[in-house]
């Protein structure tokens, strides 16, 4: 019976290189899928925004700061988890209220109202940011009236 030859250094190197390439490819694909999801979320919320009050239900500090909030729309409770900066983390405690902007068409889509700003929109929406920002501000004025 023939014994298999041990893998050469070159074939091991090729196997590791191929495996690394597959992992890198999967990471890149995941990044672009997530970016597309975030962009669509921003667009949908800004096209039909509605501000509501949510309650901070949890604070997280593992690998960055974050909070969980709950809000009620038409008798249904929704939860939104988001990362926040240290200053915001220090300002809010569990049980506090916080303003959230949701999409009227899909209340499960939400952003902290304080996170809606022109700089973030530019990052997510690129050249469309100005148009969405102006539309959002116009709708905010309508809500106030």
Could you walk me through the main structural features you see in this protein, from its secondary elements to its overall organization?
The protein has 145 residues and is of the alpha+beta class. The protein is 48% helix and 26% strand. The protein contains four helices and five strands; from the N terminus they run αβββαββαα. A hairpin with a 6-residue loop joins β4 and β5. The model has no long low-confidence stretch (mean pLDDT 80).
Summarize the structure.
It is built from four helices and five strands; from the N terminus they run αβββαββαα.
How many beta-strand segments?
5
Share in β-strands: 25-35%
Helical stretch count? 4
Indicate the mean pLDDT.
80
| Percent helix range | 40-55%
Please report the distance between the alpha carbons of the first and last residues. 88 Å
Strand order of the largest sheet: 3-2-1-4-5
Helix-strand topology string: HEEEHEEHH
| Rounded radius of gyration (Å) | 22 Å
What overall form do the CA principal axes indicate?
A: elongated
Low-pLDDT regions? none
By helix and strand content, what is the structural category?
A: alpha+beta
Largest sheet: 5 strands, antiparallel
